[in-house]
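User: Watch each token:
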Amino acid sequence: MDNQKVTANIEKDLPEEKAYRAMLHTLPGIGSVRIRQLIERFGSAVKACAELESSGSGEQWWQKLKLMLKEADPFEIYANLQAQGIGIVIPEEDGYPELLRHLADAPPLLYYKGTLTDKREALAIVGSRKATPYGRAAAESLAKESAREGIVIVSGLARGIDSAAHRGALTGGGITWAVMGCGLKFIYPPENQKLATEIIEKGGALWSEYPPETPPAPQLFPARNRLISGMSRGVVVVEAALKSGALITVDFALEQGREVFAVPGPIFSQMSKGPNQLIRQGAKLVESYEDICSEIPGFARAIPLSPATEKDNNAIDRVDGNMNTEKESDPQSQEILNLLSDLPMHIDEITQKAKVAPEQLPLILLELQLAGRIQQLPGQFYVLTYKC
């Protein structure tokens, strides 16, 4: 059936159509692929369900679905979703992510919490859950800089780089979308509940293609990654091991015709292996938002900036002895700052290399932590703090 005719028919009664798609989605064995098939065959979910109720087709799955429909109430399901603050948007209406709607495997319905943002340019920033301080700072800086230009930042709410990207967008006063690998009754990981709430409160959205009661499961996250890239004009990989889920997102991005970017990292870091390899394979090296603009002209000044957000659009400001706007450290503290970098150093190695009395070292390290100059990692390792 002609897609324009399908859209025209559905637009006549969007709430009913969404209710029926949500109902079909709750039935065992009925996923996005089957719903798309029913819509293509009958023109809408409403017409498909009407046909199921009246048809005497002998197909086994058809008869099974017919029996299940007798127990389901689409409007009750729809009302329950609304009571939970969960909305539904379908490709035939405004608010569905613009780039995603044109993909062959675009979900026939998306669940969301938050605010629909129509026809805004979006950029995905993804990477390792085991991010280093350097990686988190790079992701946050790029997200903040891009968000200030009116770009929606898309990521997966995971630990590490994803969380840093969302926080950077919020810090930049922009909008960010979190695409979940579970239903919206769950926040995964649980410690990101506060971040998820802030995303919603500041005009962003949580998205899922799974029914709300779907718990997190490993097999759901790779499929979720295609939505992250599908919603976005480009994908930036900040840190990733060679067998990282972020590289799955890159594979989807290439299939979907999206631009791929990578942030270079230290050659000694395992988390830099993925992005450094992508750069060797032709991904655009990214140090700032300007590098992204040069490949995606439509990103340049996507939305005019206010004077407050025009200033201080710099990239990472490393807090060490050479790049520091704070007051000068005392010689012993400076000695330690000069030793540390983004690569973790054990306290025993600091003791050996620093010209500091061993009995004074713990106190100096503590003072530097309290001042926000360094971070302590598990196992008595230390790194410099990066600020965006």
Q: What stands out?
A: The chain is about 40% helix and 15% strand. Confidence is low (pLDDT under 50) at residues 1-10, 304-327. Residues 3-77 form one domain. The chain has three domains: 3-77, 122-314, 318-387.
